[in-house]
Amino acid sequence: TVLLFFFFFQMDTTPESYLDLFPLDAIVYLTPDSENVLEDIDPKKVYILGGLVDESIHKKLTLQRAQDQSLQTARLPIREYMVKTTNTKNYHSETLAINQVFDVLSTYYKTRSWPAALKAGVSSGKGYVLPSAVN
C-alpha cells in the first residue's frame, strides 16, 4: 500500500505502486544516503518518503531501491543547515522517521525556511542542532 501525500494536504492510499501512478521523471525518492540535496519543493514532483530504516542492518537500502527503479534521489539539507552537537553517546544520524520527514517537508512548504523546517522535524536526539542553538 502506498500513502500518497499532496502538499495541499490531501492524503490517499492505494495498493498500486507509485511507479504505476506517476512518470519516473516526476518522482523524487528521499533517502538520507543521496548525494543530491533537496533545495526546494517542486509542486510538480512526487516525493517518496522511504519507509525503511537504513541505520541498522540494511545500510543504504532506500538509496539502492531508488537506483534500481531509476528514480531521482535527494536528501534533506541537514548537513547544510545544522551542526553536530556534542552528546554523551557520540551519536549523529540523518535518518529520520517518516513523521519527522513529513514535519520537515510540511513546515518547509509553509515557511520556505529550511532552518525552521529542520527545527520542527529533527529532534536533538539525532545529534544535530541549528547553529544558533550551540552555546
UniProtKB/TrEMBL annotation:
It comes from the Eukaryota. It catalyses: guanosine(9) in tRNA + S-adenosyl-L-methionine = N(1)-methylguanosine(9) in tRNA + S-adenosyl-L-homocysteine + H(+). GO terms for molecular function: tRNA (guanosine(9)-N1)-methyltransferase activity; tRNA binding. Keywords: Methyltransferase, S-adenosyl-L-methionine, Transferase. Its EC number is 2.1.1.221. GO terms for biological process: tRNA N1-guanine methylation. The keyword Repeat does not apply. Residues 1-129 form the SAM-dependent MTase TRM10-type domain. GO terms for cellular component: nucleoplasm. The keyword Methyltransferase applies. This is tRNA (guanine(9)-N(1))-methyltransferase. It comes from Nothoprocta pentlandii. The lineage of its organism: Eukaryota, Metazoa, Chordata, Craniata, Vertebrata.
